[in-house]
Amino acid sequence: MAREQQTVAPSQANVQVEARRTREAQEAVASGEAVPKGIRSVGLLVLSVLAVVYTLYFGKEIILPIALAVVLKLLLQPAMRLLHERLHVPQALSALLLILVVFGAIASVGFAVSLPASGWIQRAPESLPLLKEKLAVLRQPLDFLQQGLNELENVTSAASQDGGAQTVTVKQASGLGGSLASGTATMLSRFFTTMIMLFFLLASGDRLLRGFVEVLPRFSDKRQAVEIATEIQENITGYLLTITMMNAVVGVATGLAMWACGLGTPLLWGATAFLLNYIPILGPMAGLVIFFIAGVLSFGWPWYALIPAGIYLLIHVAEGETITPMLLAKRFTLNPVLVIISLFFWHTLWGIPGALLAVPLLAMMKIVADRVEPLKPVGHIIGA
């Protein structure tokens, strides 16, 4: 009898243990703890990335001027250091002088370029028939492609009519004037916001960085933050200065070359080459198209019309494939595939300003990833 009681007691204990385990498993499933840790981490990472992209896109009216101001601050930091530390000019006055110089340079170049650019724009309706006539040799494949698309559209529309569906096409006014006015107002608003942010960033010096470092809990974190900030300032400043100087050389060389070959308006073409060269790969490709069209409209077809685009291509190859990589190789290298992805990503989010910021932002990400231990594989991939 005693043996039977001893046998029953362990069986009841086992039942209680199993019931407790079942209850704990049910609670884990309800709380999400039953999901493997790796899957939860990946899910949280994806949601975090989507949240960041959402914030960058819908908050661009605030975030974009701040990003532009930070990059311009890095570009103007040597001049700021010269005025404040060498010439002992107060920080606020130095920042104001630099803002006035930047604003004056942009306004002067914009005013000088606007006159010849408006002339080309006014000639556009008259130039289109001439361009179409000279490019008649290219029309046959384009017409063939257009014919195929029309046939496909007819087949699709016939199938939709057989199914009883009707397609209603609503034509709306293009509103080109309104779009241009709205775009100009948005651009001016962002420009003035950027200038205001740039003034306060220059005038405050390293105050914001010092405040951020002071709130970090550990000394190792403080030292790491200072090292990252110093490396970003040195490398990105050097990169921006090198790129700006080389773009200026490209602009001057392109303007003189276009003037020498008879295209005229050297300031317009030099400014165009200068700005497009800030956008890697896609900028020079757009420049080739622009100079090709300008040559077709200005010179005889076909060989003389290729001279402007050919000269621009030679200048870009000499600068982009030889001189600039040699100057920047000591600082950092970036994966060209990721550069293209970064260009499309930031252009989709922020438009042309995003494309201009794509490479500096990718370089900053590489510097941060190289300094933070868990992110070192990411930095290796970016620089591979």
Short descriptors:
384 residues, mainly alpha, 83% helix, globular, disordered N terminus
**What structural category characterises the helix and strand content?**
mainly alpha
- Give the N-terminus to C-terminus distance in angstroms: 78 Å
Give the DSSP E fraction (strand runs of 2 or more residues).
under 5%
Q: Can you tell me the residue ranges where pLDDT is under 50 for at least 5 consecutive residues?
A: 1-8, 162-174
Rg over alpha carbons: 30 Å
Shape: globular
Helix content: over 70%
The overall average pLDDT, rounded, is 77
Largest sheet: none
* Count of helical stretches: 14
What is the β-strand count? 0
Order of helices and strands: HHHHHHHHHHHHHH
Question: How would you sum up this structure, described in words?
Answer:
The chain is mostly helical and 384 residues long. Among the domains are: 58-135 and 189-205, no CATH class; 242-330; 332-384, no CATH class. It is 83% helix and 0% strand. Helix 3 packs across helix 4 and helix 10 (282-298) runs antiparallel to helix 11 (307-328). It is globular, with a radius of gyration of 30 Å. The N and C termini lie far apart (78 Å). The model is unreliable at 1-8 and 162-174 (pLDDT under 50). It is a multi-pass membrane protein. It holds the Pfam family AI-2E_transport. The chain crosses the membrane at residues 95-121, 180-202, 248-269, 275-294, 301-318, 338-363. It comes from Microvirga lotononidis. Belongs to the autoinducer-2 exporter (AI-2E) (TC 2.A.86) family.
